[in-house]
Amino acid sequence: MFIVFGLLLIGYGIFSYIKNNNNPKLDESLAAPTLTETVKAVNGDEVVVKGEAKGFNKAQVFIDNELVGTTKINKDGKFELIHKIADEGKYIVSVSAIKGFFRKLVTPKSDPIIVSVDRTAPELAKINYSKEVGTETFAVVGEGEPGSTVVVKRGTDIYETEIGSDGKFVIKDISLRDEGTNVFSVVLKDEAGNSKEVEEKVSVIYAKESSVNGNAIIDSDLPVAAGELELALSILKDAKIMSLLGVLALIAFVTSSGVVIAKKNRI
Q: Which helix (H) or strand (E) holds 228?
């Protein structure tokens, strides 16, 4: 009889342990884990969830609000879980932490982060620059994937910038080492680690006798030659001067007319 009763107690203890292990009690007062060490953009087939939850035993990892795995937390409070991802896209990642043995408690979920799985290299939509310049530097402008980085390089000379949210970029003051033809390669990189070299090279002829200012190109709709730019500014300047002279002449005429009228009235 005592043996049967003991077995029942053992069985109940095992059942309670399994039930409590699978359904830990939520304690809103516990601090949620952090996910600051998780990389937010990847180009592979795995998402590595890393974070910290000091004083806890295990971390539960949720992707798109679905529990995908549980991992141990080490003595330093760090944890890591690798999860396979089949498709490209953006995924919501959050984590909770568990502590206790017979009476398990779980924290609220952490603030979610968005992890982007991107296996596609960025594309360059457009690039524009002066093909022949008379200056020792030049600029390139263009369009591409927002947030990606454009790299223009020749040997150890490397120039780069991030493409803006509007999809446009400008790199100025690219040095031309030699007179004649200078060839540069262009590479695009994104946050996930994808990269692609543009097939067509940037080829610029440096000719000292040229009147073209290589850095004057800001947009494909604007003049690139120094002569053209100066002419445009000169026209604007002359127009403003002529307008100002016209206004002054009108004021002088009105003033002189008023003086004449006043003299006549006194006579």
A: helix 226-266
Q: What share of the chain is helix, strand, coil (3-state, %, to 5)?
A: 25, 40, 35
Euclidean distance between CA atoms 160 and 106, whole angstroms: 46
For residues 124 and 54, give the distance between their C-alpha atoms in angstroms, rounded to a whole number.
Answer: 45
Instruction: Give the full edge-to-edge strand order of the sheet including 168-175.
Output: 124-128, 137-144, 168-175
pLDDT in tens, 9-33: 454 444 444 444 568 999 999 999 9
Residue 183 confidence (pLDDT) above 50: yes
Q: CB–CB of 91/114 below 8 Å? A: yes
Residue 46 three-state SS: strand
> Per-residue pLDDT tens for 208-267?
999 999 998 655 444 343 334 444 444 345 445 455 555 555 565 555 655 444 444 545
End-to-end Cα spacing for the chain: 142
Compute the half-sphere exposure of residue 231: CA atoms within 13 Å on the CB side of its CA: 9
Reference 204, options 262, 115, 135, 105; nearest CA is: 135
CA atoms within 13 A on the CB side of 118: 20
* Cα–Cα distance for residue pair 136/128, rounded to 1 Å: 18
